Amino acid sequence: MITLAGIPVLVLTLLAARAFAAGERKRAEWLLGTPIEGRERRLEGSAWERTKAIAGDPASWRDTLYSLVLLPVGIFGFTFAVSLWATALGFLTSPAWHWAQQSEGDTIPLLDSGSLGYSVLRVLIGLALLPTTAVACRALAAGTGSLARALLR
C-alpha cells in the first residue's frame, strides 16, 4: 500500500513544492530586484524515470524545506504586521470611535480618556507609528526575501 499510495503522494507533494517555490522565487525577485534561479532537474523520460528524478533531486527537497520554514515565518510576519498596522491606525482614528468605548475601574488615561489632550496625543502617536510600521513591514519582507534567496537557489 505504501508503494501504491505513498509514491504518488510523494511525487505530487514534491511537484506542488516546486510550483510553490517557483511562485516564491518570482515574489522574492520582485521584492529584492534580483532574479533567483532554481536548480531543479528537468523531468524527462518515462513516468518511473521522472519519479526517480524528482524524488532524488536535492532542489525538490530544498523547495519543500522552504515551504515548511516559511509557515512559522509567515505566521509571525503576518501577525506582527497586522498588529502594527492595527495599533497605528487605531491610535490615529481613536477620536472618531473613542466615544463607543466604555471603561470602568482603574484604567490607563492615554488609552481610555476622552479629553482633548489625550485624543491629540493618541493621534500624534498614530502618526508617528505609521512610518515606523511601514519600515518594519518592509524589513519583514526583506527578511523573507533573503530567506528565499538562501533556500531556493
- Termini separation: 35 Å
Low-pLDDT residue intervals, each spanning 5 or more residues: none
Q: Indicate the percent of residues in helices.
A: over 70%
Classify the secondary structure makeup into a structural class.
Answer: mainly alpha
Biggest sheet overview: none
Q: What form results from the Cα inertia axes?
A: elongated
Q: What is the averaged pLDDT score? A: 88
Order of H and E elements: HHHHH
Binned strand content: under 5%
Query: How many beta-strand runs?
Result: 0
Can you tell me the number of structural domains? 1
As a whole number of angstroms, the C-alpha radius of gyration is 24 Å
| Separate helix tally | 5
Question: What distinguishing features does this structure have?
Answer:
153 residues, mainly alpha, 5 helices, 78% helix, 0% strand, elongated
